Each structure stands twice: as structure tokens, then as C-alpha cells.
């Protein structure tokens, strides 16, 4: 299996490196490995859905 690093996942998914690290630490990405301080992410891994928001993209709040 081929792996990429967190900085490579940042470029692939368009999110911050800290967010990628948090997703790895929370086991949101399957089949990850950690060697020392570096996370190894499977090359074919999909970007996890961001569970921090409850609204869909483009949806507005009516008041």
C-alpha cells in the first residue's frame, strides 16, 4: 500500500495541516499509521466528511 504524508494530504484535500493531524488522531481516516511524529495516510484515502458543522454547504440560517 502506498502512503502520503500530512503535507501531501493538505495539498490533495485543500485543508490545513493541523486539521489533517486532528483527523488522524481521531481515527477518522482508515488504515493510517504513525511513525514517530509523522502520520502516514493511504494514498487512495478519501477526505473525511467534516462533522463539525450541521448545515450543508450553501445553506443559510433564517432568523
Quick recap of the structure?
The chain has 63 residues and is α+β, with helices and mostly antiparallel strands. The protein is built from two helices and three strands; from the N terminus they run E-H-H-E-E. The longest helix has 9 residues, at 17-25.
**How much of the sequence is in beta strands?**
15-25%
Helix content: 25-40%
Q: Roughly what is the average pLDDT, rounded to an integer? A: 87
How many strands, which pairing sense, and closed or not: the largest β-sheet?
A: 3 strands, antiparallel
Which structural class is indicated by helix and strand composition?
Answer: alpha+beta
- The counted number of beta strands is 3
User: In one word, what is the shape?
Assistant: elongated
Order of helices and strands: EHHEE
Report the span from N to C terminus: 50 Å
Low-confidence stretches: none
Largest sheet strand order: 1-3-2
Rg for CA atoms: 14 Å
How many helices?
2
Features:
alpha+beta; elongated; 63 residues; 2 helices; 3-stranded antiparallel beta sheet
What does this structure look like?
There is one protein chain. The protein has 63 residues and is α+β, with helices and mostly antiparallel strands. It has a domain at 3-42. 27% of the residues lie in helices and 17% in strands. The chain has a three-stranded antiparallel beta sheet with strand order 1-3-2. A hairpin with a 2-residue loop joins strand 2 (33-35) and strand 3.
